[in-house]
Design goal:
454 residues; Rossmann fold; globular; binds pyridoxal-5'-phosphate; tryptophan biosynthesis; Trp_synth_b-like; tryptophan synthase activity; EC 4.2.1.20; aromatic amino acid biosynthesis
Length: 454
């Protein structure tokens, strides 16, 4: 029988996360305040505990994973590394296609990999309440689950349209004990202001972030948790690539190319950075490795954005981060159903892209869903629409191998299953989706509003 699932024992869950900051060519650019000066730690301490801030600013290469976190990880980790042999046959490619299945977590995606340590560190710092925002509900459900594991009360501001359109993600969060409110609410200054202007405001991620941050800053016992973008989130997600390396060791292979969907960049960094560690350490196998971040043509942050300081949210509430950005008032089109809608990107992913250590590609929507359906029909798993971006790019790589005859080893990140996203598949089957490349003029217009720094 052919080996198609490479599994590790529970005690092989990695003991340390990998911090890519230790191997960067240049020091990372610090977050700046509205005055253009580095943000004082006391400002961030209003919404994050010290142990999280320490990780956020750390340049230490290996950071120990607390035993309590490994024990919760063990509910679903180590996640399987699978070989997609039926997809390979369907494509007629000599390439070997592997995927790391992060859809096996309780919340159905990679996001609990960071939600669990965030809840743990907050609890260790004496925090008993956390707030966050959620759009489609992936992050909210992950933090709800993690909060339940460590006895932290979680309050979630869910974008009002999603709250109305995705009732089952809301029930998932409530099942894990979280309070969920449709944002804008009348419970915060930011929410009341928005409702005064328009009582029917449908909400936005930027507004929900403002509400969650305000709610955390206004109480000493409450902090805020973010599901992507920040350095400590990418650090926690390296569990994905670290496990994958052990799994490849078991079968004596090493990837030639690694592909991951890229929204804020946490799952991409999570799978790719541990392999970049090999490259930095001079490992011969990694010298020609390519790591490719895959984004939608309707939100082409890395491939069409600028590398500049910008706000992390739409309302200009967060510190300025140096990153690839489409401008903080960039609005992805309503026709886009596949997620990955963030205007910016993680500072670490951005810097590595700028220094040409990683690559990026943008894929159109219809070909992305087509790839997800093809994968489901070959391998059985229905992928999250975000994951379909990596599948599209992996299939394209495999087809290039078919043309050249190269038996490359391809690894992609299956970041989640799509069981809560069947409405997007429905729209695809009903022919209601179309391709949309964000127009260059519109990008130029929103980039014109970048804050002036220096
Ligand atoms: C949130 C999410 C992503 C994108 O976020 P990153 O921080 O870029 O990883 C990708 N896939 C799934 C399933 C998600 O839930």
């Amino acid at each position: 029988m052919e080996t198609t699932r490479i599994l590790l024992d529970q005690n092989e869950i990695p003991t340390h996360w990998y911090n890519v900051v230790a191997d960067l060519e240049n020091p990372p650019a610090p977050p700046l305040g509205p005055d253009g000066q580095p943000v004082p730690p006391a400002k961030l301490a209003e919404i994050f505990p010290d142990n999280i801030l320490e990780q956020e600013m750390s340049a230490q290469r290996w950071i120990a994973i607390p035993e309590e976190v490994r024990q919760i990880y063990a509910l679903w980790r180590p996640a399987p590394l699978c070989r997609a042999v039926r997809l390979e046959k369907m494509l007629g490619t000599p390439a070997k296609i592997f995927y790391k299945n992060e859809g096996v977590s309780p919340a159905g995606s990679h996001k609990p990999n960071s939600a669990v340590p965030q809840a743990y560190y907050n609890h260790a710092a004496g925090i008993r309440r956390m707030t966050t925002e959620t759009g489609a509900g992936q992050w909210g459900s992950s933090l709800a689950f993690a909060g339940q594991m460590f006895g932290i009360a979680v309050r979630i501001y869910m974008v009002k349209v999603s709250y109305q359109q995705k009732p089952f993600r809301r029930s998932l969060m409530q099942t894990w004990g979280a309070e969920v409110f449709a944002s804008p609410t009348d419970m915060t200054e930011a929410g009341r202001k928005a409702l005064a202007l328009d009582p029917d405001n449908p909400g936005s991620l930027g507004l929900a972030i403002s509400e969650a941050v305000e709610a955390a800053a206004s109480r000493a016992d409450t902090t805020y948790g973010l599901g992507s973008v920040l350095n400590h989130v990418l650090l926690h997600q390296t569990i994905i690539g670290l496990e994958a390396k052990k799994q490849f060791d078991k079968i004596g292979l090493y990837p030639d190319v690694i592909l991951g969907p890229c929204g804020g960049g946490s799952s991409f960094g999570g799978i790719a950075f541990p392999f970049l560690a090999d490259k930095a350490a001079g490992d011969r196998r990694a010298q020609h490795l390519r790591c490719v971040a895959v984004e939608p043509t309707s939100c082409p942050t890395l491939t069409k954005g600028h590398y500049a300081y910008d706000f992390g949210d739409a309302s200009g509430y967060t510190p300025l981060m140096k990153m690839y950005t489409l401008g903080h008032d960039f609005m992805p089109p309503g026709i886009h159903a596949g997620g990955l809608r963030y205007h910016g990107d993680s500072a670490l992913v951005s810097q590595l892209y700028h220094e040409k250590q990683i690559e990026a590609v943008a894929v159109p929507q219809l070909a992305t869903f087509e790839a997800g359906v093809q994968f489901a029909r070959a391998e059985g798993i229905v992928p999250a629409p975000e994951s379909c971006h990596a599948i599209r790019a992996a299939i394209d790589e495999a087809l290039k191998c078919k043309a050249t005859g190269e038996p490359k080893v391809i690894l992609f990140n299956l970041t989640g299953h799509g069981h809560f996203d069947m409405a997007a598949y429905d729209r695809y089957f009903a022919g209601q989706l179309e391709d949309y490349a964000y127009p260059a003029e519109a990008i130029a217009a929103s980039l014109a509003h970048l804050p002036k720094v220096g």
